[in-house]
Amino acid sequence: MRRVVSLYLPTWPTDRIRRRFGEPPRDKPLVTVSATGSRRLIAAVDATADGLGLRIGMPLAQAQALVPDLHVCDATPDDDETSLRQLACWAIRYSPVVAPDPPDGLWIDIAGADHLLGGEEALLADLTTRLGDRGIAARAAVADAPGAAWGVARYGKGCVVPSGRTVDAVAPLPVAALRLSSETLNAMHRLGIERVGQLAAMPRAPMVRRFGKEVALRLDQAMGHVFEPISPLIPHETAIATLTFAEPIARLEDLKQVVRRLSQDLCRTLTQRGEGIRRLDLVIRRVDEKGASLRVGTAKATRDHVHLARLFDERLPTIDPGFGIEEVALIASRTELLVEQQTEVPGIAQDDTVDADISRLVDRLGARVGAHRVYRIAPVPTLVPERMARKISPLAPPTGSVWPETLLRPTRLLDPPEPVVATALLPDHPPAFFIWRRLRHKVHKADGPERITPEWWNGDKRAAPRDYYRVETDQGGRFWIFRDAPADQGGRWWLHGLFE
């Protein structure tokens, strides 16, 4: 299923000027102007100028009369487009299929790549946050069709259009969301056509006679009825291996053979450069101009073409060949220097103490379940249970931290702790029984309390100390229970772990 992100940069020219020159401050209005004959008209406005009522196309003299302290720069559309291409190259980190959408946007086809960042919402949040940290205002939306994503990003309220709900998402948008000319939009407004749904409800033949074929095409593209291709931008320095077929292929076995051949060709090129692959993209083009892409990553740089090809094996069945695939490209979208190292000496046995290389295992697991789900657990020097472990890279060097051998902790920790109803015979005694998940447990044996105090240096200034008890029920279950305050202060009971 195709999923396309439309990235909208509403103040791209002014944001680019601020990033380049470092001025004026963001609370000062900034516009760019272009010459049209003897007139100077506003070509772009920033958010502050827009809030003061300045609009694109307004004469500069009128704008300066409204805002005397207005900052003015000459419009440079060629530089804006060049910078937009550079931004598209930066966005390849999210997907191999990225293309500029001048003058103020990007296309990103994230089908097969969104899982690497935890899903579509997480990807959009990461994308807009990174741009915001760089001083670039951005909005983004994802949908099945590029036209739908374009309209929702600029005129919609949500950011993710569920798959199969394109028509419902586009219908309430204004007709300006169809990427039409100003003359066509003015004609529609004169006839009272304000929403895409109104236009879609009109008979097709009269609509085409009145507004032209372009309106029908844009409407079908926004609704997802017509395929709209995206030509990916590939930086010149990127290593790529492609294969075009005289006769389209469709069998999975053939596609696997092609990937292996391209992987070998690509690794041969990277050997000459002295580089290894860290991120690999597979892009296919079908005979109907539709495409698909897959992305895999490696834990460390490698040029093992057999290993790289195998990373795609479990995900190649997700590609729909349609009526046939006529072109396949393998792109090394991220590489690192890879220095040749001697790994063994003939005739001399290897030392058993040398750590095994698990990078290939990490790559296979990452390709299967997602790279963000493959990690190691490292100890943290603290006694607060929920802070005693943290996730680190599976190939990270040893941290040197260890848990105390005498520290008794449950094998399963509940995060967050779950409340229980418990009764203790005396204030400082363990509970005589407790109710958890609607089941009553009678305590047969108990050990404690173990008091764990809050860590003020980690922001636990208002947290209460906890008294933990290890309890065993008459049914043999072993639990880790704590009370978050003394009984005379209204402390509550919580179940934090299970000894299994």
UniProtKB/TrEMBL annotation:
Chemical reaction(s) catalysed: DNA(n) + a 2'-deoxyribonucleoside 5'-triphosphate = DNA(n+1) + diphosphate
EC id: 2.7.7.7
Residues in coiled coil: none
Keyword DNA damage on entry: yes
EC top class, as a word: transferase
DNA damage is among the record's keywords: yes
CDD domains: PolY_like (cd03468)
GO molecular function list: damaged DNA binding
Cofactor(s) essential for the protein: Mg(2+)
One of the GO biological process terms: DNA repair
Entry keyword set: DNA damage
Gene3D superfamilies: 3.30.70.270, 3.40.1170.60
Residue intervals of the DUF6504 domain: 430-497
UmuC domain mapped to chain residues: 26-150
InterPro entries (alphabetical): DNA/RNA_pol_sf, DNA_pol_Y-fam_little_finger, DUF6504, Rev_trsase/Diguanyl_cyclase, SulA_CellDiv_inhibitor, UmuC
Domain DNA polymerase Y-family little finger: 242-333
Highest taxon of source: Bacteria
Reported function: Poorly processive, error-prone DNA polymerase involved in untargeted mutagenesis. Copies undamaged DNA at stalled replication forks, which arise in vivo from mismatched or misaligned primer ends. These misaligned primers can be extended by PolIV. Exhibits no 3'-5' exonuclease (proofreading) activity. May be involved in translesional synthesis, in conjunction with the beta clamp from PolIII.
Subunit structure: Monomer.
Family: Belongs to the DNA polymerase type-Y family.
Name of the protein this chain belongs to: DNA-directed DNA polymerase
Annotated organism of origin: Microvirga mediterraneensis
